[in-house]
Amino acid sequence: MPYLKYVVAIVVLLAALIAAVVCCYMDMNEKLLAEARRNLKAENEYKEQYFWQFINSRLNWYRTVAAFCDGPVGSGDENWHMILKEYSSDDMRFGIADTHGTIYFGDNETADISGRSYYNKVIQGKEVISDVLAGSWDGQETVVMAVPIWTDGKVSGAVCAEYTALNLGQTLNTSITEKAGATLVFDKTEK
């Protein structure tokens, strides 16, 4: 029976030790989760800031182009034809839209965009970033950024830049922003 006291003492000591380890684990787990949340929040804020800087820098450039563009009248002599050819690429095509919904691209291609919601907004004088457009350019998903061209206080056309969703994603996931993963951008419908 003298051993019973020792056994009980050891069991109580082990139970206290286990309880202390569980409490320590739970406390450490909570601290690690809180730290992970803070890091994710900081990373998300950084990437969101980078995203909006990217968008705003592009829109500023399109505003500058719009300020110096002739209105698209279809003559072929407008001053923006050289800009379209120079800045269009495999991942972004640059276009100037007229007030009837025809867009002129750098490769002398045209398209009717009069039914697109982004076009209807930009032609009303609003700057627009479209939703993802399925199959808009050679079957690829794209996003369009557009700003109006103003002539004598009226909208006379629009500067439009169409990016493939793949290229836009690659641009947003540069080495500057890829420290902890990838940037995902969703529209209101979570697409």
From TrEMBL:
SUPFAM superfamilies: Sensory domain-like (SSF103190). Keywords: Membrane, Transmembrane, Transmembrane helix. It comes from the Bacteria. It comes from Extibacter muris. InterPro entries: Sensor-like_sf. The chain crosses the membrane at residues 6-28. This is Cache domain-containing protein.
